[in-house]
Amino acid sequence: MRIALAFRFVPIAAAVAFVAFAQTESPDPAKPRIQSLSHAIHAVDDLDTTLAFYREVFGLKGTPNDFPNPAVPQLTDAPGVTLRLSMMPLPGAMRFELTHFKGLERKPARAAYTDPGAASLVLYVRDLDAVVANSKKANAPIVTTGGAPIEIATAKGKARSIVVRDPDGFFVQVIQETPAPGAPEGNVHRVSLAYTMESAEATAKFYNGMMGLELTGPSAFSKDPAMLRLIGAPEGTEFRKLTGVIPGPPADVEFTEFRGVPRTKFHLRVRDPGAPAMAIQVINLTGMVAQMKAAGTHLISANGQIVNFGNGTHNIFVEDPNGMNIELFERSGPVPARTQPK
Predict the structure, then answer these.
(1) Which residues contact 226 (CB under 8 A, 6 or more apart)?
(2) CA separation, residue 90 to residues 61, 62, 170, 341, 342 (Å)
(3) Distance between CA atoms of 32 and 11, rounded to whole angstroms?
(4) Angle between helices 47-58 and 128-137 in degrees, nearest 10
(5) HSE-up of 168 (CA within 13 Å, CB side)?
(6) What is the pTM of this model?
(7) Which of 51, 54, 115, 337 has an alpha carbon within 20 to 30 A of 95's alpha carbon?
(8) What is the band of 29 on the pLDDT scale with cuts at 50, 70, 90?
(9) What mean pLDDT value characterizes the chain?
């Protein structure tokens, strides 16, 4: 399956693919593995402000709702916390959950794009100039050097792109691309996910080895001045990527490792504004968590325990090798209200 992501740089010198811990089909139906991506998550400082940004800049809409599930404090290891959220529908059956935690102190923070644990929502649009104009009207910080779109190489050829920050510092890469036949209406017609990793080897070991993904990419580092200008990185920075598809409604995902630039691992608590996360439905949650615990993975939920979230759903937050929070869950009952598209 061809993967169409924001960047696809595979130089001849790196033609030998970096394929770590590739999985083969297991006859064991209980083998711990990913079943599907439920949604991307982004903790915000103020839900109404961030919803207004995505509505005014991109035409994306979400409805704020209180979420009074009593298991939230245990799941997030935040006694006394309350939650207000919006599950924003995106093209391709993807969803973007904006979470606004209240009731206790929070520490907002913003990553550099090159910091491990940084996250980016990649939006493919029909009209990039409209997005740039809307971003400036909203006073959104533009990350791209020079503050204007540049031309980059993508899997579909050359395209214009820019990177901006939302009100909480979360990165949004915007790419102008001709939509496929039957693509959703509106300016945004396609979505993918992008994350910054600390180490390709550690990231592959976690996602491929313990979660059953197939992330692949070149072992060698590359240079590309256009990409560096796009993300505001200094000259001389090098990078390599792992790419793959998370099943479920399928979601293209890429992880980028940088070198030649100072990096600081970006890890926030689940409740802190600016914290990115993914919610992933898995098969055999107990077995997966046991493997992660044995491997030294940080289990975030209270006492490192799986939480009964109600309606046949069991969840736990863990930290991936790059500092990003991952909500793993297994479901045997009906879909709870939190995960129903609005």
Answers:
(1) 150, 151, 152, 153
(2) 9, 10, 17, 10, 11
(3) 35
(4) 140
(5) 30
(6) 0.89
(7) 115
(8) confident
(9) 90
Q: What is the pLDDT of residue 130?
A: 98
Among the listed residues 21, 36, 10, the one whose alpha carbon sits nearest the alpha carbon of residue 246: 36
E strand or H helix at 121:
strand 119-125
Between CA 117 and CA 320 the distance in angstroms is 9
List CB contacts of 17: < 8 A, sequence separation 6 or more: 216, 217, 218, 219
Q: What are the sequence ranges of the domains in the chain?
A: 26-339
pLDDT tens for 185-208 read: 999 999 999 999 999 999 999 999
Cβ atoms 49, 167 nearer than 8 A: yes
Contacts of 290 (CB under 8 A, 6+ apart): none
Amino acid at the residue 50: T
In 3D space, the residue among 253, 254, 8 whose CA is nearest the CA of residue 153 turns out to be: 8
Asked if the model's pLDDT at residue 166 lies above 70, the reply is yes
Q: Which two tokens stand for residue 101?
A: 């935690």
**Residue 247 structure tokens:** 């099943």
Largest Cα–Cα separation, the chain: 55
The dihedrals phi and psi of 315, each to the nearest 5 degrees, come to -130, 160
State in Å, rounded, how far the first CA of the chain is from the last one. 30
Range 26-339 classified under CATH 3.10.180.10:
yes
CB 303 within 8 A of CB 309: no
Residues 125 and 95 sit within 8 Å (Cβ to Cβ): no
DSSP letter for each residue of 194-220: EEEES-HHHHHIIIIIIT----BEESS
